[in-house]
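Subject: mismatched residue count in predicted assembly?

I count 567 residues in my input, but I want to confirm that the predicted structure covers every chain. Input:
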Amino acid sequence: MWNTAIWKKTWGDQRVLVLSLAALWTGFPFLYIWLSAQIPMPAFQDVLLRAIPKDWQRLSGVPFTEVATHAGRVALAFVDPVVVLAATVWGITRGSDAVSGQLERGTLEMVLAAPVRRLAVFVTQALATTAAAAVLCAVLFASVCAAIAFGPWAGKVDAVRFLPAVANVFGLMVCMAGISAGVSAVDSYRWRTIGILCGFYVFSILAKLVGRLSRPLSWVGYLSVLNAYEPQRLVGDAAESWRLLAAYDAVLIGLGLVAYAVGAVLFVKRDLPAPL
Amino acid sequence: MIVRTTQLTKRYGGFTALDGCSLTVPEGEIFGLLGPNGAGKTTLLRLLLGYITPTAGTASVAGFDCVRESLEVRARTAYLPGEARLFRRMNGHRVLDFFAGLRPGCRRDVAAAVARRLDLDCSRQVARMSTGMRQKLALAVVLATETSLVILDEPTANLDPTARAEVLELVCEARAAGRTVIFSSHVLSEVEDTCDNVAIVRAGRVVHEQSLEHLRRCHRIHARLHGPLPAIPPALADSVTIAAQQAGGVVLEAGDSLAPLLGWLSTLPLEEVRIEPVGLAAIYDRFHRPG
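Triage response: the counts match. Full output below for your records.
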């Protein structure tokens, strides 16, 4: 179930992506909070509470009165495309590389010529990917803390409140990486795996929007994995936030683990085509 | 026998890649696999390694079943794929480090020595290596692995003549060290020079097995006839056959030592006699050249 050489190689493979995302997530909270602070709170509240129709509140997932606070505004950073897309791209990139990426490059051939179980290759890569996701989320949390502590809203927000939101980002990364690895395990072309996952992601966004905006079709929202990605709802009351996080991450991480498990079984049993 | 396959078959839908292949490879020899592209050689090798599962039949390496005990099989086998692809971002040294860490029995110092023998610059990044250099790097990994069976799928493809000769020498050294080598190739001269036995594969079937030692004793006698060809004496019936006879010419094939034939040949009405070894090409052509 474990192979040290594969562990090291996977870290080598993901090094550039980890460093890039770490740099992005280090700088982003500083920039986001600085830009947000350029709009004074009264003006922001005025726009949000008076100018935007109340019905649109359904889109945000939380009441506008909660958004119109310092904590609420920082929380919006977690639903900003810079965070959501980066987490998704991470999952799809790493997950798709698990099998179909290596099959396409032809590098799996010599690895599996060694007396290494396919399961060990798959599981070790999954663990390295998950560990890197945890490192990236730690970087994001540290950066949010630092941006609050040294930014324009110093003393106005308690940074610890954002820990559940960061944990929700981690859940999304595990979920997307797991589903991507599951698809990758039965595919032979990485571009096709990525295409399938992009389609899945777009469907998830649309299903969530439909579920939010249409009351008769609210059930459609449950078809979206993003329904369990609500970091902006996890910055209120601490006990309630952790309770919600447990439910959200149970769905996200649970889906990711199930996809990993199914992928592992299929990878172990499948025929591996010769590299083209 | 280190490798034994029984009625090994692999089908992909309606296409049969390997059809009832029964083969045995004795320990400590170089065994050649010959056949054109798509004949089923690589399918056979991939079945042995457990990359694919057979539709029917069984295969074993050193007594271990290739499906149920694939890990044991691979622990005893070093495999060079037909087109060895390595990690493009690593340099040669790191590739050798990786495989030395990945598999027990792969000796880093031996791999480096093989790379040196093949005149390979391991400091270069794989992405910047030519196809031949990548092949040399993969060969260094495979030949440095201490296993009882070495499977080489077209090991000399893409190599320059010097490296090609060096690889053949390394293959012979592996045999001398008691290892068994399965050697798949299109280059008949290489197979003829190095192998002890060959199997010729055609359209997924093993159509012929040939001992090279026996083949080296076989000769063809081409001559012009200026009279009727008498019947072959009963004492020589087992060792000579008439391969062709037409328009005043005859081709005799001697299946063993020439010495007993020479006396009889001198009594025949022959002119312009030419004796040459049969050669693997002639055997191969019997199965792969139409007509």
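Chain A is about 75% helix and 0% strand. Marking this ticket as 'not a bug'.
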